[in-house]
């Protein structure tokens, strides 16, 4: 029998999952991003649509836009990153730290000038382009201490200004939008170091800004016809989960930063005494999280021993409960999909486990980054699956007959060490065909899909 779950890897997997609501990520040909230092990567549209993105990122490693454009790029998505470090919504409302910073108003003007005409290399269309906007960190941060405004009222001024920019993008053809909320910057050293009074004052401002952003997006969506998606992705639960469970996720220091690292380090493992290695920090400097928060480390942080230890402890407890060991896999085509394959006497026994305290505790920690995406109970003797399986080919066939659904040939002629098939006991129309391979050499089939999945084993 077989259970499967999806692990939304830290921030990025959460994001790709959410951004695929209507315009699926796999069908997204163009991604246009607007924002500040959390988003910028040196891409310079003024230098042309094929400008490279060699610039400074605030995360000491690929930021979320670069990760979406590379590791997580499944559709050859072309990225136009218009973000500018230090950006606010409008420099006339909240001045940025330098006059040269391009605000969202400036970034939208650049979009209009360089991309709206759809030049060669940027022939985007309304139904294949996602517009992602992550703004507000500096709006809230820079205006935090102002006494000439009431912050919540001022945020509605900011929202009105942001709305004019969204309207402009809509008029130019944008139909799919992703918004990211302001993360808990009250937990960043910049504010922590100013003491509990400052932190306590900032917290409700962030909550208010994010609430206004969410209602602004709803209003924008209902005002216009034909908006395909307008999703608000809340970054707060993800950041808070990582910060609250620092040990689990391998962060040693979540409150401070090391001056020697603040502008980036030559390597991602750099250590300058007396500081701990840079990889141990959540914050690279006073305000910017390290790239490990943006994305997984290569090959995948999921293979990190600290996370491993946590899964292992759940695995042990579940195995004790069920009498079957747990095996873990991820999906080659979609590294965000994480699978737990194990045995149960019957599906009732599994349901009891799901409701158990141990499992609920696990879900409490991993809840914000992990969602149970699917579950299948297959009538196969789990003990038959060779314990040294390193790659598992899974094919689901609806209304499938007996034993006809195996994949006939692997790309490289390898033979599976075991094959088995069985009905989904909760949905007897579905048959599952499993093929196990024991010597891992890369995905056994490159053209899997359409109900066929290649899973790679993690954690022996
Ligand atoms: C972007 O490219 C333009 C044109 O090549 C150049 O003038 C400008 O300085 C560049 N901007 C930055 C921030 O590098
Ligand atoms: C950008 O690259 C694309 C190919 O990826 C090409 O078709 C286009 O002409 C290029 N545009 C410019 C301005 O160089
Ligand atoms: C409030 O004061 C700040 C800082 O002096 C200034 O930049 C801003 O324009 C003022 N805002 C309003 C609404 O008066
Ligand atoms: C796992 O994470 C910890 C803490 O960040 C780090 O020290 C260790 O090197 C990581 N291990 C691997 C294999 O990446
Ligand atoms: C975090 O790192 C900073 C800089 O190295 C250090 O001053 C601080 O004491 C560390 N905090 C903890 C809790 O280790
Ligand atoms: C896996 O185990 C089987 C026996 O169950 C054995 O024949 C095979 O050689 C093993 N493969 C590897 C790579 O160890």
TrEMBL record:
InterPro entries registered for this protein in UniProt: Dimeric_a/b-barrel, GDSL, GDSL_Est/Lipase, SGNH_hydro_sf
Extent of the signal sequence: 1-21
Alphabetized GO MF terms: hydrolase activity, acting on ester bonds
The keyword Hydrolase belongs to this UniProt entry's keyword annotation: yes
Annotated transmembrane regions: none
Coiled coil: none
The entry's keywords: Hydrolase, Signal
Chain segments carrying region Disordered: 400-420
Keyword Signal applies: yes
Pfam families assigned to the protein according to its UniProt record, in alphabetical order: Lipase_GDSL
Protein name as it appears in the record: SGNH hydrolase-type esterase domain-containing protein
């Amino acid at each position: 029998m077989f259970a499967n779950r999806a692990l939304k890897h830290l921030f990025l997997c959460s994001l790709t999952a959410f951004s695929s609501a209507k315009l699926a990520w796999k069908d997204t040909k163009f991604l246009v991003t607007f924002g500040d230092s959390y988003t910028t990567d040196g891409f310079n549209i003024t230098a042309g649509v094929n400008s490279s993105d060699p610039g400074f990122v605030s995360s000491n490693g690929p930021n979320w836009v670069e990760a979406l454009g590379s590791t997580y790029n499944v559709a050859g998505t072309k990225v136009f990153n218009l973000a500018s470090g230090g950006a606010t919504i409008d420099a006339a409302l909240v001045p940025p730290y330098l006059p040269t910073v391009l605000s969202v108003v400036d970034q939208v003007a650049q979009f209009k000038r360089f991309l709206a005409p759809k030049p060669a290399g940027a022939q985007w269309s309304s139904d294949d382009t996602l517009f992602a906007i992550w703004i507000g960190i500096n709006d809230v941060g820079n205006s935090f201490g102002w006494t000439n405004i009431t912050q919540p009222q001022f945020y509605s001024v900011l929202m009105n200004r942001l709305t004019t920019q969204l309207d402009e993008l809509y008029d130019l053809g944008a139909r799919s939008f992703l918004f990211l909320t302001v993360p808990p910057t009250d937990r960043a050293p910049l504010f922590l170091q100013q003491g509990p009074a400052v932190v306590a004052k900032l917290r409700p401002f962030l909550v208010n800004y994010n609430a206004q952003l969410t209602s602004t997006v709803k209003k924008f969506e209902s005002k216009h016809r034909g908006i395909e998606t307008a999703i608000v992705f809340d970054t707060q639960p993800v950041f808070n989960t990582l910060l609250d469970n620092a040990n689990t996720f391998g962060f040693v220091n979540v409150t401070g930063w090391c001056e020697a690292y603040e502008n980036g380090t030559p390597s991602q493992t750099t250590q300058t005494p007396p500081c701990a290695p840079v990889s141990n920090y959540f914050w690279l400097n006073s305000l910017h999280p390290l790239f490990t928060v943006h994305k997984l480390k290569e090959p995948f942080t999921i293979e990190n021993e600290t996370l491993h230890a946590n899964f292992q402890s759940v695995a042990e407890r579940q195995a004790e409960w069920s009498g079957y060991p747990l095996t873990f896999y991820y999906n080659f085509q979609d590294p965000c999909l994480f699978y737990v394959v194990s045995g149960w006497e019957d599906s009732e026994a599994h349901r009891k486990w799901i409701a158990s305290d141990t499992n609920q505790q696990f879900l409490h920690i991993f809840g914000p980054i992990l969602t149970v995406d699917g579950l299948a109970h297959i009538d196969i003797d789990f003990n038959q699956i060779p314990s040294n399986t390193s790659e598992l080919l899974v094919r689901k066939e609806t209304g499938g007959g007996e034993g006809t659904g195996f994949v006939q040939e692997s790309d490289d002629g390898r033979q599976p060490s075991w094959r088995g098939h069985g009905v989904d006991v909760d949905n007897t129309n579905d048959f599952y065909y499993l093929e196990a391979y024991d010597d891992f050499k890369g995905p056994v089939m490159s053209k899997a899909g359409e109900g066929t999945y290649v899973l790679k084993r993690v954690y022996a």
